[in-house]
Write a sequence for this structure.
């Protein structure tokens, strides 16, 4: 997202393209795309939610580095499987947080499943 050297719009042209655009035109197209996206360019992933769920399932205390590390590993391993694309990033993060805590403490999983009405064991 950050560039130390921002190329000129003309430098972004494909060599030998059938149509070439002026720098002003490229800038106008970029602004149109960004305004359509309401300038939200950050991808929402399970990592966006993991801190929230780790804290929620840990009585709002900061999670241990072990839980955070284990959660990150689990999230990255789910990214390799196409089967997980049917789940929302928040669902993956909640499941991963429960799995990370559940490996050490089953009472966390029991408490979470009784207090969250949307959790299905």
């Amino acid at each position: 997202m950050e560039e130390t050297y921002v190329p000129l719009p003309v430098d972004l042209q494909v060599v030998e393209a059938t149509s070439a655009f002026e720098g002003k035109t490229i800038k106008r197209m970029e602004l149109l795309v960004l305004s359509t996206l309401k300038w939200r360019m950050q991808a929402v992933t399970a990592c966006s939610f993991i801190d929230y769920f780790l804290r929620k399932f840990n009585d709002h205390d900061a999670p241990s580095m072990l839980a955070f590390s284990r959660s990150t590993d689990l999230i990255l391993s789910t990214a390799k499987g196409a089967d997980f694309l049917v789940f929302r990033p928040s669902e993956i993060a909640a499941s991963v947080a429960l799995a990370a805590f559940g490996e050490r403490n089953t009472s966390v999983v029991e408490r979470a499943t009784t207090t969250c009405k949307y959790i299905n064991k």
Notes: The chain has a mean pLDDT of 78. The chain is about 50% helix and 0% strand. The chain has two domains: 1-42, 46-115.
